[in-house]
Amino acid sequence: MKIITGETEYFKSLKQVTYEGLESDNPLAFRWYNPQQVIAGKTMAEHFKFACAYWHSFNGDGGDPFGGATHHFPWDRQADPLARAKDKMDAAFEFMTKLQMPYYCFHDVDLIDFSNDIEKNEQGLQSMVEYAKGKQQESGIKLLWGTANLFSHSRYMNGAATNPDFHVLAHGAAQVKAAIDATIALGGENYVFWGGREGYMSLLNTNMKREQEHLAKFLHLAKDYARKNGFKGTFFIEPKPCEPSKHQYDYDAATVISFLRQYDLLGDFKLNLEVNHATLAGHTFQHELQVAADAGLLGSIDANRGDYQNGWDTDQFPNDIMELTESLLIILEAGGFQGGGVNFDAKIRRNSTDPLDLAYAHVGGMDLFARALVTADKILTQSEYKKIREERYASFDSGAGAAFEKGEHSLESLRDFAVANGEPAVISGRQEYLENLINRYI
């Protein structure tokens, strides 16, 4: 991939990151991620569609509830919003091309600062869309998905599509329309909805049924508008249980699937799952992946991790090879993502203030995914992993068990089988053996 820089080179000490293999000690080289290496019938690049999260990487300033910014970007110095936005995009495409990242993702307000003037916001966003078109064409980088930020502005304190005030809902619709227009103009392959405040703080002042019906109508309107205007990609819902709301309507994968089924949205929507959101919901990431895969709705993922000592969304870069290998087992068996890829919705730490820290984080994350892919593929093709699981359910493959799955039993006939065959044998699930098996291949 050709390195793209603007008038200023923002990451001067970062050179082109390439695959150097397992013998390399270069911390800014890939040891596992070889984009053209074929695993399970697809190249690594095709498996992952790695994407850079515009908001964390180029907008996040290290601030937290207890302190201000610690990351002071050289692309964030101009007073004029449009000039500042172009500098930021120059920096983003320089960084992504140096890391050979083929995709990026954004919220509308990431590209350019928004005001309270809808028409001015639309004009500013359109200006940046035109600028991004040139950057994409020059670099070959594509848009994995776009979205609208319907949670940061004070007007959305009670939600957007689920807000009790119709006026606020209309403002949210205006933003979504413009974000969809931008996504279509940039050839975006998908569009995401994350309901950061689509939920409630107290049921005392909430009509939950009405709010969810409004959300469904809103999603239908957005879907219909996008299709009418030529969008052929997939819409994603990204589940999260809470934070900032006490209880969000997109709580977890199972909740979202139920919502999509209830409101006739399954034909156009799939899930974008995030590791840290899964753990906040009390699940493992593997559980959420399996729920989505079993429903045929595994669309895309946001790659990050939480901190076991913090009960909130820390959005750290992934580094757990066991978790990721188990996740890739599910993704591979499901046939991969349906439209999406791997978006690094993760941020460097508040005290990581060197520009290269952002590169170390992404290189490490991309390499970890590649290593997990290679490992998972070997487990599926060379070990007895699948055989052990198949044997555990062998009693349903023939005889009375197979008849049950075909619907040929009654409750009475099941009772008669139990009487005739006595007490069942105690059969080990072999969990420890399987955990050791995965560690051997790692």
Automatic annotation (TrEMBL):
This is Xylose isomerase. One of its GO terms (molecular function) is xylose isomerase activity. The active site is at 107, 110. Mg(2+) 2 binds at residues 274, 277, 313, 315. Its EC number is 5.3.1.5. The gene is xylA. Binds 2 magnesium ions per subunit. The keyword Cytoplasm applies. InterPro entries: Xyl_isomerase-like_sf, Xylose_isom_bac, Xylose_isomerase. Transmembrane segments: none annotated. The lineage of its organism: Bacteria, Pseudomonadati, Bacteroidota, Sphingobacteriia, Sphingobacteriales. Its cofactor is Mg(2+).
